[in-house]
# Entry
Amino acid sequence: MNPRFVELALRKQRLQLRSGALRDDLVRYAAPLAPAFGVADHVCDGFHWLRRRPEAVIAGAVALLVARPRLLFRWARRGMIAWQAWRKIHNTLNAG
# Structure
């Protein structure tokens, strides 16, 4: 066998072992973050649920409009400001 091939095969094996050890370390060190990731998953699931059911958002907005119109308009204004800020940040990041 070619000595260069054997050297490369050994190097590949050492790198694979090192990668396995690093993955194990990552799993061990990230374990305390699992509850936070769980909460984030639930929040994302909620947003996906709302995106699939826009009628629920509309029904909630109509109910709020009937019950507390001022509150709805205040939150609508905040939402518009947040959306505009998000668009500016998004456009700035994509432009660069």
Summary: The mean pLDDT is 92. Residues 22 and 28 are 10 Å apart (CA to CA). The longest helix spans residues 3-30. Residues 1-52 form one domain.
